[in-house]
Write a structure and sequence with these properties.
The protein is mainly beta and 877 residues long. It is built from eight helices and 56 strands. Helix content is 9%, strand content 67%.
């Protein structure tokens, strides 16, 4: 009976509390007061605008509808309906500290939008701690939620939307959490997790085909991929697989595609593998292993390789393929990265590097660089250096005994280069023991030093004998340059492989900027023989870049050539791409006029004129004084040349009253015309007494190879017409031909001399039929005879050149045969023999050996010989 009494009392008390609670809430409008209180506290705590459309509560639950929490630019939360079920007595008796009295929280149709924007590079390091939520409620359910998440910093922007979010949390001694959601049409997320005191005891996660609504990286044009994952964690054992697939990325014109990146692992290690990965069409293979995944001492071992990558895709000026291998090892927070780049051949600026091997090793913030091998023009180029990230770059490059050759030009020297970069570029280049050799130039033991600091540069070139030196300095950005070439007794014989070239002393100075280029030279030219060559040449060149104007002035002072004074005066003016020769005179007797234009292509038109030039005066520059005094006559020159269209060359050279020593006066005319491919010589002639004695024809072929041909026809030339000696007579007929091609000369001579007489020697016929090549003389027929007196014949070939009187060792030979009265011929040449006679025969074989002519074999016979010497009474038999 007592138990029933107590039960009745408790029921009455609860009934009174409920009635009292209901009456107070309705009469005092406590629900409105609570609604206002909750709104104010949430607004202050979240720094957000709070809106609650309806709020009611009773002794069992609270009902809130039309909830909106808004922080402009940060987040927004809308909840259609929220129910909180609780045990009011437990809350009251625990003074609202026992939150487990909240038995169930139900949230319907929440829509959550959040935008996270970070600024700067500072990242606050926080340790993430999972809270123990078992003390806050018994159950929580979210139904049909939506979340729109946006994250953005200076490098990356991510947006994604999740729908149909269902979350269930059941708290007892542990928290059982179940989450499901979908994103887009195909992606689904399922998570189950058990938490105990904020520690994950078990977890299962499945995600398939997640495609983010937006994923942007600042330096990428686009990036897209799908993500799927499967993870289980139980009893401190972790297993997971993930696949990032259908990856497409684009940067400017560069494209990357990866079929998939496969990730798998457990608590100890993670395996990562690239499948069908390509960058700009070049395959990339890679794999990685991460050890001790769950510890703070995670390590990585990774290898990425690619091969046959066309470098021109990335550097237009460089062609060739490269191979790359990247190894990553060590602690994942501070790994050791080794990169090796190799290439069989790279070409830039028409220069080729082959067998290239470059290695880079990155430790902490320092990258060690090593050029292990590279070959340029068969020269080994190696080096090394370092790059401290965010600080400076240093490189050393070397090539010992470097050789370079193009055509017949050869270059050699020792190269060392130092490259530094910290805020500004600093490049120092040193070349020592420089040798420059060619068929026309020779320099030894030159030294060059060049330095580039930011935009300022200096260059110095010196020679051990100090006979030549070059220095310059300037600024690339400002387009400024000052240069000076010093010549101090430079012997051009040594420099240009010559034998009779002059010595130079003087300076050439150049000053240039973006507005003008000014060059001045003052050079003394002299020869070892005083007076043979000497004088001063001064040149002034001004290029006005602003006004498109140019001026060139060349003058000689106190100049002499072959001991004779010579005066050169040139003045040309024009634009930057064309020049008009105002006057160009040699000794004020030869005028050169015309113009030159270099753009859009190099064209010119020139003429040379000289009238009534004295052969004697002109010859003084080319022959010795005594020879020039034996010459006479007038020379007229009229030549014009241009390269317009097919080019044009025409002109005439005439010699009037040409006299050589005691020769009779001759007149000569050479007419020529042609184009850039061939120049023809037509109707050339040599006349004596107004009578044509030699006709001259020829051609100079310029393309594709240089070929020279010339021929002369002699028709009944009387020797007496040109050589007024009383004891010389004869008539010459025949022809002469000369040709030169491929640097080889040929001279063909086929002439006959009839009724020849020189002093007391006479011949009815002399014949010369020969072909002269550079090192070999072909004698088709050399013969002479006089009826009843002698007959001489010769033929064959011999290593000899009649033009320069040089003999060459050769296996060929010529034969010389003679039949006749040798003693009688001798008696004709001297008055000491009054009478003579004989039968003579001889034959010799003549050749060359060791650069000398010698008789290889021969025989000689003389019979029935007799002679009578003047003053002797008897004949000698």
């Amino acid at each position: 009976m007592k138990k029933k009494t107590w039960l009745l009392i408790i029921v009455i008390i609860v009934f009174i509390i409920n009635i009292t609670f209901f009456v107070l809430v309705r009469l005092a409008k406590v629900d409105k007061m609570v609604q206002t209180r909750i709104s104010d506290q949430l607004s202050e705590a979240l720094n957000a605008e709070i809106k609650l459309e309806e709020f009611t509560f009773n002794d069992k639950q609270a009902n809130i509808s039309g909830i909106e929490i808004n922080s402009p630019g940060k987040f927004n939360l809308k909840v259609s309906q929220l129910y909180v079920e609780y045990d009011l007595l437990k809350l009251i008796f625990s003074k609202f500290k026992n939150l487990k009295a909240i038995t169930h929280i139900k949230i319907y149709d929440p829509v959550f939008t959040i935008k996270i924007v970070t600024e700067g590079n500072e990242r606050e390091k926080r340790e993430f701690v999972i809270p123990d939520i078992t003390e806050y409620f018994k159950m929580l359910d979210i139904y049909n939620g939506t979340a729109d998440i946006e994250f953005e910093n200076e490098f990356i922007k991510i947006e994604n939307s999740w729908q149909k979010i269902d979350l269930s949390i059941k708290n007892s001694k542990s928290s059982d959490i179940t989450l499901s959601a979908i994103s887009g049409e195909r992606s689904a997320l399922q998570v189950f997790c058990i938490l105990n005191d904020g520690v994950v005891k078990r977890a299962d996660l499945k995600l398939n085909d997640l495609k983010l609504s937006k994923f942007e990286i600042s330096k990428l044009n686009s990036l897209g991929f799908l993500l799927e994952a499967d993870l289980t964690y139980s009893d401190e054992n972790l297993k997971y697989t993930a696949k990032i697939k259908n990856i497409d990325a684009e940067l400017a014109t560069r494209k990357a595609s990866v079929d998939s990146i496969f990730i798998s692992g457990n608590s100890e290690r993670t395996f990562i593998t690239l499948h069908d990965s390509y960058l700009d069409g070049n395959r990339i293979d890679g794999k990685a292993v991460i050890n001790d995944v769950l510890s703070d001492n995670r390590t990585i071992k990774s290898e990425i390789t690619t091969s046959n990558v066309p470098l021109q895709k990335y550097i237009k000026q460089v062609s060739g393929n490269v191979n790359a291998k990247i190894d990553i090892s060590g602690k994942i927070t501070n790994p050791l990265i080794t990169v090796e780049v190799t290439s069989e051949k790279l070409v830039a600026a028409q220069q080729e590097l082959s067998d290239i091997n470059i290695q880079a090793i990155m430790r902490d913030d320092n990258i060690e660089l090593q050029l292990n091998n590279s070959i340029w023009e068969n020269n080994l180029l190696i080096g090394g250096g370092y790059y401290k990230i965010g600080q400076d770059l240093h490189l050393d490059l070397y090539s010992q005994n470097m050789h370079w050759k193009k055509d017949d030009l050869q270059f050699s020297g020792n190269l060392s280069t130092i490259i530094n970069y910290q805020d500004a570029i600093d490049i120092f280049i040193e070349l020592e023991k420089i040798q420059i050799q060619s068929s026309s130039i020779s320099f030894e033991d030159l030294a060059l030093k060049a330095n580039l600091i930011n935009n300022d540069f200096t260059v110095d070139l010196t020679h051990h004998s100090n006979d030549i030196g070059f220095s310059c300095f300037g600024n690339i950005r400002n387009q400024e340059l000052k240069a000076k070439l010093k010549l101090r007794g430079l012997d051009l014989n040594n420099a240009l492989n010559g034998t009779s070239l002059p010595i130079l002393t003087g300076d050439i100075e150049i000053e240039a900027n973006k507005y003008s280029i000014v060059a001045n030279s003052n050079i003394m030219v002299y020869d070892r023989d005083y007076g043979k060559l000497g004088g001063r040449l001064r040149t002034d060149i001004v290029l006005d870049l602003s006004n498109n104007h140019s001026l060139i002035n060349l003058r000689s002072y106190n100049a002499r050539y072959n001991y004779e004074p010579i005066k050169i005066d040139l003045l040309a003016e024009g634009s930057l791409d064309s020049l008009h020769i105002k006057h160009f005179q040699l000794n004020k007797i030869i005028d050169i006029k015309g113009w030159i234009k270099r753009s859009p292509r190099f064209i010119y038109e020139l003429s040379l004129h000289g009238g009534n030039l004295k052969v004697k005066e002109i010859s003084e520059y080319f022959v010795d004084y005594d020879t020039s005094q034996r010459l006479g006559g007038d020379l007229n020159i009229d030549i014009s040349i241009d390269n317009l269209k097919e080019g044009n060359v025409n002109g005439q050279i005439t010699l009037d009253d040409l006299k050589i020593g005691d020769m009779n006066e001759l007149d000569a005319t050479l007419n020529f015309f042609g184009n850039s491919s061939m120049i023809s010589l037509r109707e050339g002639s040599i006349k004596a007494n107004k009578h044509k004695i030699i006709g001259i024809e020829g051609a100079l072929i310029l393309k594709p190879d240089i070929i020279v041909t010339a021929s002369g026809i002699i028709d009944s030339l009387q020797l007496a017409d040109i050589l007024p000696q009383e004891n010389l007579n004869g008539i010459i007929k025949g022809g002469i031909e000369f040709s030169r091609s491929n640097n080889k000369n040929e001279l063909q001579l086929d002439i006959e001399v009839t009724d020849f007489k020189f002093n007391r020697f006479k011949a009815d016929l002399l014949k010369f039929d020969i072909l002269q090549k550079d090192c070999l003389l072909y004698i088709n027929d050399i013969s002479g005879f006089r009826e009843g007196e002698f007959n001489l014949r010769s033929n064959g070939a011999i290593g000899y050149n009649v033009l320069n009187s040089k003999a060459f060792s050769d296996t060929n030979n010529i034969s010389i045969r003679f039949e006749g009265d040798l003693l009688n011929m001798l008696s004709d040449q001297t008055r000491a023999i009054t009478n003579a006679g004989s039968n003579s025969e001889f034959e010799f074989v003549v050749g060359t050996r060791e650069g000398k002519i010698f008789i290889e074999q021969g025989n000689f016979s003389l019979t029935q010989g007799y002679l009578k010497i003047k003053g002797q009474p008897e004949d000698i038999d």
